[in-house]
Design goal:
elongated; mainly alpha; 6 helices; 105 residues; 71% helix
C-alpha cells in the first residue's frame, strides 16, 4: 500500500471524533470508541488493518512532542509520584499568593 495514499486520507479526513459524534447526536466515551475500533479491526480485512496501521504511524510521526525524551520521562515520573501521594500539588491561586507574599514584602 502506498504511504502517500494513506497520508492523503489522513490529511483529508476530519479527525475531530468528538464533534462528529456529538453532531450525530451519538455520545460515546473514549472507552466505548476504543472498544468499537478494536471490534472493527478484529473483523477487518488485512488490507484495512494495514491502512489503519499506516494512518496511525503517520499520525504518530506528525504529532511528535516538542519536549525531549528526558522531559517527557520527568513528567511521567512526577505524575506517578503525585498519583501515589508522594508529592503534593498546588493550585494556581496558592502559587500566586505565595509569590505575592514573597515579592511584595
Amino acid at each position: 500500500m502506498d504511504i502517500n495514499f494513506v497520508v492523503n486520507i489522513f490529511m483529508n479526513v476530519n479527525l475531530n471524533i468528538e464533534s462528529s459524534y456529538l453532531y450525530k447526536k451519538i455520545e460515546m466515551t473514549s472507552t466505548a470508541i476504543r472498544k468499537k475500533v478494536h471490534e472493527y479491526i478484529d473483523e477487518a480485512d488485512v488490507s484495512i488493518v494495514e491502512v489503519i496501521y499506516k494512518l496511525l504511524e503517520v499520525y504518530r510521526k506528525a504529532n511528535n512532542s516538542l519536549m525531549t525524551d528526558e522531559q517527557q520521562d520527568e513528567i511521567i515520573k512526577r505524575s506517578i509520584q503525585y498519583k501515589n501521594g508522594e508529592v503534593k500539588g498546588h493550585t494556581l491561586a496558592e502559587v500566586q499568593n505565595r509569590l505575592k507574599r514573597k515579592y511584595n514584602s
